[in-house]
Write a structure and sequence with these properties.
Pathway: Isoprenoid biosynthesis; isopentenyl diphosphate biosynthesis via DXP pathway; isopentenyl diphosphate from 1-deoxy-D-xylulose 5-phosphate: step 3/6. The chain has helices spanning 69-81, 103-118, 125-132, 139-144, 178-182, 196-200, 209-215, 217-226, 248-259, 262-266, 281-286; strands at residues 6-23, 29-49, 54-58, 86-92, 148-151, 156-159, 166-171, 232-234, 241-245, 270-277. By secondary structure, the chain is an alpha+beta fold.
Length: 292
């Protein structure tokens, strides 16, 4: 056993746009997106063990099971590196599930990065990203720790420097699974690829948004309400929606209005304000490992 207790964030993300460009023979969808990392998310505390056991304690009791991506990530790392160490992992959840904010994938990525350091495995970002990819297509962006332009199934990443923005993120009280949306026959799957310039000039959208708005009226209601304050868009396959503001005060003013909205309270909408970041603390943690 090496290392001592480590606390590591697991940031949320937004898809600033999401185009579905095709479907591969294996069923995976090809896409284009921009991942914007946020300074808001979950937090993991990891303590190494010398008996090989992996134990998880989550602040949400329903997530304390073997299907949690934290345990899946830890086991995958153990198996592929033949590590004989274990860990006690405490997960404090703030990112809602089924919201399109990448919570489970981010937790998995931070687990890989944290254990890589505590177990002194000295794996690179790219090696950890390859281990994480089977757990979720957006695990690699969290391992890399940088906001990025994404292609392929979301794993082909090019770091980008995005302008400073504050985001108001709203999450209606409905759980949406990525698999249900991507398997729906009405999903648009033939959007032509674009270049970064087209995104920067506003020529983008979320291909999943029309379908989700139709299937989940609370998402439609949240988007309509938020659009009264700034242009609003859905992230990922939902349920969360977001709007960008140039300054924090404007975003917080809209959040205060949310708390006073009877309509939004009736459908269980919750919100938070976060700043977009081009690099997360996970990136800084990986600086101590080789980066190839």
């Amino acid at each position: 056993m090496t290392g001592t207790t480590l606390t590591i964030p697991a940031p949320a993300k937004l898809n600033l746009f999401l185009h579905i460009t095709g479907r591969r023979a294996d069923g995976y969808h090809t896409l284009q997106s921009v991942f914007q990392l946020l300074d808001y998310g979950d937090e993991l505390t990891i303590s190494p063990r010398n008996d090989g056991q992996l134990r998880l304690q989550c602040s949400e009791a329903t997530l304390n099971d073997d299907n949690n991506l934290v345990l899946k990530a830890a086991r995958a790392l153990q198996k592929l590196t033949n590590a004989d160490c274990g860990a006690d992992i405490t997960l404090h959840k703030r990112i809602p599930a089924g919201a399109g904010l990448g919570g489970g994938s981010s937790d998995a990525a931070s687990t890989l990065v944290g254990l890589n350091k505590l177990w002194n495995l000295q794996l690179s970002r790219s090696e950890l990203a390859r281990i994480g990819l089977p757990l979720g297509a957006d695990v690699p962006v969290f391992v890399m720790g940088q906001s990025a332009w994404a292609e392929g199934i979301g794993e082909q990443l090019t770091p980008v420097e995005l302008p400073d923005k504050h985001y108001l993120v709203l999450t209606p009280a409905c759980h949406i699974t990525t698999a249900a949306i991507f398997s729906h026959q009405e999903l648009t799957r033939d959007t032509s690829p674009i270049k970064m310039h087209a995104f920067l000039t506003g020529q983008s959208r979320n291909d999943c948004e029309p379908l989700v708005r139709q299937l989940f009226p609370p998402v439609d209601a949240a988007l309509r309400w938020l659009s009264g304050y700034a242009p609003a868009r859905m992230t990922g396959t939902g349920a969360s929606v977001f709007a960008a503001f140039d300054d924090q005060s404007a975003a917080r003013e809209a959040l205060r209005a949310l708390h006073e909205s009877a309509e939004m309270a009736r459908i269980g909408v919750r919100g938070f304000v976060a700043k977009g970041v081009n690099r997360s603390e996970v990136y800084d943690l990986m600086m101590t490992a080789k980066d190839t």
